[in-house]
Amino acid sequence: MPLDGGCTVRGRRLLGANKTLRGALVMVAATVLATAALAWAGGAVHRELSVADLQRNHAWLWGLLLGLGYILGELPNSFTKRQLDIPPGAAPRHPWRAFFWAFDQADSLVGILVVLAFVWRPDPAFAAVLLALTLLVHPAVAGLMVLLNLKDRIG
Question: At 93, is the secondary structure helix, strand, or coil?
Answer without folding.
Answer: coil
